[in-house]
Design a protein that fits this description.
Alpha-D-Glucose-1,6-Bisphosphate, Chain A, domain 4; 72 residues; 5-stranded antiparallel beta sheet; mainly beta; single chain; globular
């Protein structure tokens, strides 16, 4: 996410944070790991204060990354 630093324990239920700088502004987004299968799948909740919404469960969304194929 935008060159962010990621911090987590990589286990389901662990918190995850993304932090960095974008457009000259520092940010720290956060969520929870919902599913993690190394080299295949990462599914998390995600909240960013930059959206202008309060940090409440209804303002989180779910993000899924799936890796397929192989790099050559």
């Amino acid at each position: 996410m935008l060159g962010a630093r990621v911090s987590t324990g990589w286990k389901v239920g662990n918190p995850i944070t993304w932090s960095g700088s974008y457009g000259g502004e520092d940010f720290e987004d956060h969520g929870t790991i919902l599913d993690f299968q190394p080299n295949t799948l990462l599914r998390t909740t995600h909240f960013s204060a930059s959206g202008g919404q309060p940090d409440l469960p209804e303002n989180f969304h779910t993000v899924t990354w799936r890796l397929t194929g192989s790099a050559k």
